[in-house]
Amino acid sequence: MAASKQPSGFGRMAHMQAPKIALLTVIAMMAFAANSILNRIALAHGEVDALTYTGVRLAAGAIMLALILAYRGTGLRLGQIGGSLAGAMALFGYAIAFSFAYLELGAGTGALLLFASVQICMLGWAIGKGERPGPFEWAGFVVAILFLALLLMPGLTAPDPQGAVLMLGAGFAWAVYTLIGRGSIAPITDTAGNFIRCLPVTLLLILPGLLAQTTSPAGWIYAAASGALASGLGYAVWYSVLPALTRSTAAFVQLTVPAIAAAGGVIFIAEPLTLRLALCSGGILGGVGLAVWGAETRRRRVPRP
Question: Is the Cβ–Cβ distance between 226 and 92 less than 8 Å?
Answer without folding.
Answer: no
